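Appendix B. Raw example, untouched.
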Amino acid sequence: MKRFILILFSLFLITAANAQITAVWSYQQKDNGDGTIDLIFNADIEKNWYMYNADLIPNGPLPTTFEIKGNNGFVAVGKLRDNMKAKTKMDDAFGVEVKIFEQRGSFVQTIRRTDAGSFKVEGILTFQTCNGSECLMDELDVVFDIPAGEVAEFTEEEMIPISAQESDQAFGGNAKGSTEGLLVFLLIAFAAGLGGVFTPCVFPMIPMTVSFFIGGTGAKKAGIIKGLIFGLSVTLIYTMVGVIVAMFQSTDATDFMGTHWIPNFLFAALFITFAISFLGAFEITLPTGLANKADAQADKGGYIASFFVAFAMVIVSFSCTGPFVGSILAAAVTGGLALKPILGMFAFGLAFSLPFVIFSFFPSLMKKMPKSGGWLNVVKVVFAFILMAFAMKYLYTVDAYFGWGILNRAIFISIWIVIAILLGMYLLGKITTLHDSKVESVGVSRIIFAIASFAFAVYLIPGLFGAPLASLSGLLPPPDQSTMVISGSATGAASSAISNEPSTGLCSEAKYATAKNRAPHGLNSYYDIKEAIECAKEQNKPLLLSFKAVTCSACKVMEATVWSDPAVLDILQNKVVLVSLYVDDRTELPLEEQVTSVIDGKLKNTLGRKYRDYQLSRFGVASQPYYVLVDHNEQVLVKPIGESSLTEFLAFLNGGIETFNRQL
């Protein structure tokens, strides 16, 4: 009878688990005929749910990954990658732009055969799906049986089994989001090219350059041809810079550029160096020998001379255009698209050369140009402030990589506020640089830009006190890392905003606590249920089990919008013992703490797998966030709840506490 009941219970749990299935997977394998084999993972995603793609984003959601166990008979070529185009969306909870699949998704892992015999490829497929109110992380054991075949020489040529067009036809991929992201990038690069024209190194040279076009024979046609050759040459030179960068770019290199501390530190140092240069401390120039040789060739005249004039222009103007070029390339190499550096530099070069080409067609327009003067230095200084602000984004990535917590959200926003105020004061002439002309009066345009700068500073201030600042979420650190709540309970929150120490339990140090799983708002938290029960008995309080994930966006939204309420914080701080159960924690458990699942019979050897199995086997739910109030015997006090409103969550907390108090 007991065995029969156990079987029924297991069937119930399996049914409950199936109710939580948000993606159905199918697998294929394709022999490419060159010694490599593509392992293809296709997902049919439930309606209203979406799945994150394979790109790793620092402090972002969980990407889809395939962790290979062993390598007998083969070696992996790169990592799991998208096999169709993903849609781009802004994830407000993480404050970053993410790529997702809706309805259908496809991934591919390439392996290279090292043995002619048959073999198995075993691994764990990890993925996360969300629907806006809850997220589900899951792991699947996947096995591919690879038949015998020939071993071939390996080439580094990238193998794409399904072209973008075939992927869209086969799986209905949506490229609109990524296309929009690329378009915005190209528009910014184009605007940067135009901005480079209005710098002290370039603007005064326009009349001199155009006079070269229309000089010599004086024929208008010859001037137009020289102008076109000049424009094409400038565009080509900058595009070649992009080609050189793209040659050293790969998927792994892009991940490295976007997530590792070394390239992000170098980008930050580059931006700060250019900013200091723009403020007038020093000038950054290329070797003068290059410019002299280009000038010597240009002096020979003729159409070919237009190329050397363009080459000389690029070299001479580098001290002003360098920061623009560096900014575009830094954004391109962390953007995940191999052609992005090439397209960005093409757009920049096209815009930079455009005014010269227009003036070669219509030389009379130069009479309407503003005269060179102190305003050109103002352009440089304004851009210096912008560069310093963007340098903070790269420094934050370095900070997040090491988990220091020094450059948290509050400090980041504070620095931006100071930069915006200083920029406004500069535009009003209250502070000046060594190269600025004396400001006798302030024009209308400077007043308008100063107002905009001060307004931006004021807009940022609420971000110090928990405001999401959604329009800047892609540039700022996530809100949950540094939240200060204006209330009587703000002390703990403010403390957590400036501390990188792991959370502590209410009664003692918390086992498995790390800087990365700190509880929000400065709350005390345990990460082990047994430890929490001992404290709950001592404090005579119920336990709040919070099933969550570092990569769960819905969890972050709940904690930022509901847990931050003073009434909720008071309960979490004083009336319950909080237990944070991270289902994606990969901490390896000692043998005595590992468990064998009653659902699938597999050993759960990490903290996250253990808690995910506990949530499913104990409560029949696998999604996060999920909150359960239990007594000291782990008996449920009130119906558990997931994503909810403030009113619903308060009713859940108060109901569970009332039930607990009645049991005393």
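End of appendix B.
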